[in-house]
DNA sequence: TGCAATACGCAAGTCTCGTATCGTTTCATC
DNA sequence: GATGAAACGATACGAGACTTGCGTATTGCA
């Protein structure tokens, strides 16, 4: 209960366990290692792992989301389309083919583990969602998007296809889909139906 | 090797096992039953289960996707928007709150099992994708969608947000998102936009 | 009628997850 | 110092997934 009472937790054990989890995930995938191996590699007892994280799914999510959680994915580039594109490119890089199986493992592991899902939301989804929300706010401020723009819907439209291609289609995100996402958001919520560069691009060569 | 050699597989055992799996899933959820129970309820030995399906995840996916795999989700309603809306409603109903935990379990079952993922794609994803592709073809035929409509992108835009809300947000599909999906697809690929400035309209005169 | 091949039920054995309990160690507080 | 609370490594445990091996049953073919 009282954190100031009793022996304090071994400093460094948290990070050692997370690192071991990350390494074993990249080396062997979710099913390819046991919690015992995590403990051994981290140099701690098995119980010290379970004292910190209640299950393998939660530990895996914690390990895979513990780095780079504070990045502003949809950073300010001057225009909403720029913010959106650079953010999507960053996500595309993160979900790149090399780590596809890895992220599939993480996503599916969350599905029925409520604690793992909450942690994933906290560490991964929320920062990105907030970053996108800020980009939308800036866009409304600039007059690029309508005031009624529904951030939640934009998030779903932007992130959903990503997830689908990575998990279900098990394929990279193609340029045509990335363009379609950007264009769809601009068409749905663009404040002024003026010619956005997204639509011009498709016509300009002609 | 040769299927005509040796004792043939017990006819009916396949279906009995799948039925038992389905029942136990709906009654107790993925973690709530053992393979032993599946075998007992189906009236077969445990090995007869593993002879047909290599793991519990694969069996569960097989059991949950073995019925209704041939439904034409995006059936012909007379218009593309109708097809799309009725299909989305059907998917929403399938993933509805009552069966949400069930499908979360199925996703979880796929977590560490590539074979289960492949089977899910084969039995669940592919038929829906094909159904949507047929609806798009009809729409192009009717002149509702542009000839260049990219079926793959439409699939991603339609199914992605669904998956995202189900897997990440663990929430129902809101009406506003469903409307946004329909509108986005129509804006992107609608062949004859009325007065709304759609992309195709600006490109087609060339 | 034999024989090879395969499926069958059954049971024993291995592996891993997650829990519980040991004696020990490290801290704050008395 | 002594004490109590909590973390530590180690280990035993129950449960369930999956494997392996046994003896038997059922088929096609020689």
Number of helices of chain A: 10
Could you tell me the radius of gyration of chain A in angstroms?
21 Å
What fraction, in percent, of the residue positions of chain A are helical?
55-70%
State the end-to-end CA separation of chain A. Answer: 70 Å
CATH-level-2 architecture of the largest domain in chain A: Orthogonal Bundle
**Beta-strand share of residues of chain A:** under 5%
Shape of chain A: elongated
Number of strands of chain A: 0
Structural class of chain A: mainly alpha
Helix and strand run of chain A: HHHHHHHHHH
Overall pLDDT level of chain A: 87
| Main β sheet profile of chain A | none
Which CATH C-level class of the largest domain in chain A is it? Mainly Alpha
Per CATH, the superfamily of the largest domain in chain A is Tetracycline Repressor, domain 2
User: Of all protein chain pairs, which has the greatest interface, and how many residues does each chain bring to it?
Assistant: A-B, 48 and 46 residues
- The CATH topology assignment of the largest domain in chain A is Tetracycline Repressor, domain 2
Oligomer: homodimer
Task: Write down the domain tally of chain A.
Answer: 2
Low-confidence blocks of residues of chain A: 193-206
Molecular structure report:
- Two copies of one chain form a homodimer.
- The first copy, chain A, has helices at 13-28, 35-42, 46-52, 56-65, 80-94, 100-110, 114-142, 151-167, 175-189, 197-203.
- The first copy, chain A, is built from ten helices and no strands.
- In chain A, α1 packs across α4 (56-65) and α2 crosses α3.
- In chain A, 66% of the residues lie in helices and 0% in strands.
- Chain A is an all-alpha fold.
- Chain A folds into two domains: 13-52, Orthogonal Bundle (Arc Repressor Mutant, subunit A), CATH 1.10.10.60; 80-197, Tetracycline Repressor, domain 2, CATH 1.10.357.10.
- The model of chain A is unreliable at 193-206 (pLDDT under 50).
- Chains A and B meet through α6, α7, α8, α9 and α10 of A and α6, α7, α8, α9 and α10 of B.
- Chain A binds a DNA duplex (30 and 30 nucleotides) through residues 1-10, 13, 34-36, 39, 44-48, 50-51, 54-56.
